[in-house]
Amino acid sequence: MKTLVLIRHATAETRNNSVDYLRRLTQKGKDESKEMAVKLFGIVKNPGAIISSSANRAFETAEIFAKQFDFCESKIMKDRMMYDSSLAYLISRVTGLDKAYHTVFLAGHNPEITLAVNYFCRDMLSSLPKCGFAVIKFELDDWIAISRESGILQSIEYPKK
User: Fold this and answer.
1) What is the DSSP letter of 76?
2) Domain-by-domain residue ranges, the chain?
3) Read out DSSP for 127-161?
4) pLDDT tens digits, residue range 80-120?
5) Can you give the C-alpha Rg of the chain in angstroms?
């Protein structure tokens, strides 16, 4: 059995004149992340891997989740391609995961995170809210065997649900 947790980054600074990639979490975003990490802690076991977009807001979200799970923050894998990527890239990232990992967290951006939930499950989610997460279970032994609608949506949570 494999468990994939798709996490959308928390609330970040407004764009204004800043470079989108460099935007950081606001205090609200940090608080949301802590709240949601505690919720997730009650649902899944410790992750074998955490992969995050390297954009500041996604990586900061991943760090807060890692801390809740006593996952070494230096072991979070930063993936530059997850910023402004595509659904096809996320699918290839998931199906390319090491078989040894049973639970993996992926922290990224919309619309790709929502599209991935809809691809892996039969559910049609319009948009995963900021700092929301979806827990998807796969009755498979290897990530490479994952395909469209092969997952079961176990839980979907977001702030102020």
Assistant:
1) P
2) 2-157
3) -PPTT-EEEEEE--S-GGG--TT-EEEEEEE-TT-
4) 999 998 999 999 999 999 999 999 999 999 999 999 999 99
5) 14
